[in-house]
Amino acid sequence: MTADPIYGLLAEFDNPTDLVHAAKGAFDAGYRKMDAYTPYPLEEAAEAIGVHHNRVSMITLIGAMLGMCGGYSLEYWVSVINYPINAGGKPFHSWPSFIPVTFECAVLGASLACVFGMLALNGLPQPYHPVFNAPNFTSSSRDKFFLCIESQDPHFSLGDTRKFLEGYHPELVTEVPY
Amino acid sequence: MAPRIDDEIDVLPPKGVRPPVIGPGQTLGTVTDRIGGIVLTKHTPIFWFAVVAVSVGIMGILNTAIAYLLGRGTGIWGINIPVGWGFAIVNFVWWIGIGHAGTLISAILLLFKQSWRTSINRFAEGMTIFAVMQAGLFPLIHTGRPWLAAYWLFPIPNTMGVWPQFRSPLIWDVFAVSTYFTVSFLFWGIGLIPDFATLRDSAKTLMVRRIYGLLAMGWRGSARHWNRYETAYMLLAGLATPLVLSVHSVVSLDFAVSVVPGWHTTFFPPYFVAGAIFSGFAMVLILAIPFRYLYNMQDFITLRHLQNCAKVMLATGMIVAYAYILEMFMGWYSNEKYELAMVHNRLHGPYSGYYFMLVLCNIIIPQLLWFNKIRSSPLALFLISCVVQCGMWLERFVIVVMSLQRDYLPSSWGMYWFTKWDVMTLLGTMGFFTFLFFLFIRFMPAISIFEIRTLLPQSKVKE
Q: Is B198 on the interface with A (CB under 8 A)?
């Protein structure tokens, strides 16, 4: 056992099936502070480590509402209050012609909220993360699949967790230093 | 690496079997190397420099035309009374139409779970952004004083206390196009993040790793991140779908809300959207066919993709043909002399040659796409796409110029003669577009690496 604290233990698998199997096993064994790293979105991996719902949809809805109200209020304020102009005898508050801009503003608000909300929930941009210290981790964006059980987990113990992970026949188990 | 013609890949499979979406024998690693290799290679191909040099030269023409325009004003163009909307608006509608295929491919086909879109969505999105940039240039420069256009186009507080007129479709257009550009850019941007991470991890030099590392924002492929990422991607697709339909609808309202004969019709929005998709897919083929040949990407952009694009073109081309027939029918059915005169002017007026050329380019020649042999020949598809592109430009010319040159009062009839500056600006935007597109395929993965991985059989979890 090393004297320095470590971030966690990283197991490398060469196919998604083994990764999902190991992740399910780890979840059943009571591990919660862990993460799977895959080169493409793998729904099964997220489910295996107990990730089901997220708040992106809610944030997007809020963005859409804000955009919609903002767009319509702007049009109302400009056309009725601040700069009322009689155009072809149409009423100042001619709401049907305000719909296109309201719609576009709603889509704009929703999209900005969606993308920046997703990035914020993911904690990105993040210049440093300990998992990059593992020398073989570069292949996580190529063709390898990783499961990292973090040392913060109450069930974590270097020897037992390593033995547990090796039970799933990974290619390699490495310690991730901080 | 010299371009090669891979005969084996472009051979048609036996009757009844469709070509594969991805060539055989690919693995997660080879996909990464092949697509990432275009970007990370140290040897930039000669043709890349040649194309960039030519397009920079053409951009010089654009810059000259714009500089002279800013100095002298829009009088250097052929516009006058009665035709006040000339090339600038024709080109704007043409470019924005081309920009429609990208979002259609990436958003609508994603929602319909059409996995073949994966090979072409990235560069189609790039194409969209670059085409919308060209489109956006025209409204800006056609004001003649673009440095003042900010408060003409956008509701920006100013000391004169004037605001845009929100009852006008022209201001709807500003919001539609700028929202479309922003959302397309976000869609493209979040699609690129995981691929930038791949490039960061496979980069060979520190400098390259740093640049792509910065762009990847620390993406590490965590399952929690992917979970939110996938939600965001699907939501964005769901938002982009009504948006893409709204943009060209709003563009068509610029015309349809007026009372000018030939413009004042309710079928303009669907007609414009179909035309936009028609020309957009033609542009996808114009870019995809040389790209797959020059970079040996026949494994990833297979005959299946070309055939499917051709089918979409055929379908939307038929809708456009229907709209042309309906235009004539509505003129007759309205029983209004001005609308009837418009129809007569189309067929026998001074610009009837343009009209018959557009019928030839947009209706007659694309009928060749009914034949499987034509749909499977990259060269034929490339040529037909170029013809369609010309046809769609002519369509906008016919719509804009023909209605304006002869409206209600014969005393205000006139002709429109475009000048060399009009032609230089149009040509220049093509150079600018090509330049941006070639920069993109050299420095960013032109095919989505992480999405291609999901197409491979070994990417699935076995029960």
A: yes
